[in-house]
Write a structure and sequence with these properties.
By secondary structure, the protein is an alpha/beta fold. About 5% of the residues have low confidence. It contains 10 helices and 8 strands. An 8-stranded parallel barrel has the order 1-2-3-4-5-6-7-8, surrounded by 4 helices. Helix 2 links the parallel strand 2 and strand 3. Helices cover about 45% and strands about 15% of the residues. The longest helix has 21 residues.
Amino acid sequence: MSKHNFSIEFFPPKTPEGTEKLRATRAKLAELQPKYFSVTFGAGGSTQQGTRDTVLDIIGEGHDAAPHLSCIGSSRDSLRAILNDYKANGVKRLVALRGDLPSGYGALSHEAGAFRYANELVEFVRAETGDWFHIEVAAYPEMHPQAKSPQDDVQNYARKVKAGADSAITQYFYNADAYFRFVEDAAKLGADVPVIAGIMPITNYSQLVRFSDMCGTEIPRWIRLKLASYGDDVDSIRAFGLDVVSQLCERLLAGGAPGLHFYSLNQAAPTQAIWQRLVK
């Protein structure tokens, strides 16, 4: 695993208790020596302060941190101020996203912020800060749920890379073939930066279905049926989920994926368990 780019994502806590709990979680996961921790950004920038506070906490503990930065709901001046603040605090990595529309916005429009698409945000960050930041962007092996077609989606991704992205992190998926095909299709368009595979541990069936329905991730039928068959048997769900996701990670790394990015949901144990399987 030391040969690969291994990172872990958190979301900003909303309470003092959540902040302390995340610090304890982070201490456990730091033992795995990930390259960095990333911190998400809410719809329309709704967690901007929480993202910043968590990132500075992580840096204060001696780890690298990558805040998510969304262009939806942000002006050029506000984005410029955020970038300057992160630079002043030693942040060297960003995850640049279009971001989710906050409720009530309706369709995507110029009113949603200075920029409508992530490639425009990447261009702005490069124009403002040069090569200061390592910029990650999002990739969707199974297609962004709002894309017109798989072809349009990979072209949108290529625009982000050509705008100056250094690497990408995928939405989570459970079909390795979708990842490898996406990387191949992107490379044909000249978008050949490293594509880190996003990994979602399986610990809760109903939660997984809810997340997957929202983001357009397919749960393969055999996995869905197996999970559903366990009912409320949490131990069986977690054991099966560990097998499925560990085998997925092994296949991805063996097939040339440059790294893994774990969506931790602010929990330590699921990522730790997968990691132990991979380092054996």
